[in-house]
Amino acid sequence: MQEHYREEHRWVNPRGRGGSAQKRAIQAQQVPWRIGVQCQRLFSNGPGSSWFEVGFGGQASQAAPEEAAIIDRMNRAMEQQQRRFEMEDKEKIKAADARMDANAWLEHVGWATHLEGFDPEAMLRLTDPVSEHEHALQLIQDSLMRVMSQARAIATPAQVGSQALFEAQRKEVDKKPRRPFDNRMEDDTWARYTAVWTKLVCYIYRAEAMADEDRPGYRLSKRQSESLDELSEIVEAYVDDPDTQPLEVDQVDRLTLQTVMALLEHHILTDSN
């Protein structure tokens, strides 16, 4: 700040350090700022949150009680309106603005555009853990965990070869990983990996059951839709009548694997996978 005063305003504080504080207090000083300036800002944060001067050229005076009451009511009304704007802004998802959005990855994958206009809280609930009443979805999640556990168990050089493990570890198309995928991981790491897939499956299964006007506007491919439909029909039939529709675990796991593979092999409009 002192450097700014010296370079921009050619002013150096003549008081310096030390001396009598009482003597300095009664000495008039020429300073490059004004005191008693009335300021205001439109928003508490974000664009428009900077302070600006109001009542320029006027004399600061103590407002009368009636005037102070009016000002107080106006301030409360403005604060309520600001809170209402903020609540409305959170009620619906907006498409990403390339100039304002700092998260380029969200813009790349298109989630904001995909969910534009939907209630974010309602969309987030689609990824909630399976409830005790969602029996069919619970069976699918149990199958998904078995499939992932089996995949982890055979992810060894002796079973699939080192080249496949290097590909599994790859994070960038043009860069070969320095080491292969290692299935020996901590329990919390495995929980984070599996949580991604369980949330995705819950999201798709629940969204598919919604009315067309309420659900997100994605479209499954023919392969994805057929695999998910067949899987859903089998587990839902078992839930409805377990005595006459026994559940074949191997068949369910095979369909779960087919559904997962179909979701992984998803071509998007830019011809990227």
Task: Report on the architecture of this protein.
There is one protein chain. The chain has helices at residues 2-9, 21-26, 65-91, 104-109, 111-114, 120-125, 135-153, 157-160, 162-169, 187-208, 222-240, 249-264; strands spanning 39-40, 52-53. Helix 7 (135-153) crosses helix 10 and helix 7 crosses helix 11. With 273 residues, it is mostly helical. The mean pLDDT is 79. It has a domain at 127-264. It has a two-stranded antiparallel sheet with strand order 1-2. The longest helix has 27 residues, at 65-91. The chain contains twelve helices and two strands.
Mean pLDDT: 79
Strand order of the largest sheet: 1-2
Q: N-to-C SSE series?
A: HHEEHHHHHHHHHH
Cα(first) to Cα(last) distance is 52 Å
Q: Taking Cα atoms only, what radius of gyration do you get, to the nearest Å?
A: 31 Å
How is the secondary structure organized here?
Layout: H1 2-9, H2 21-26, E1 39-40, E2 52-53, H3 65-91, H4 104-109, H5 111-114, H6 120-125, H7 135-153, H8 157-160, H9 162-169, H10 187-208, H11 222-240, H12 249-264
Antiparallel strand pairs: 1-2
Helix pairs in contact: 7-10, 7-11, 7-12, 11-12
Nutshell version of this structure?
The chain is mostly helical and 273 residues long. It contains twelve helices and two strands, in the order ααββαααααααααα. The model has no long low-confidence stretch (mean pLDDT 79).
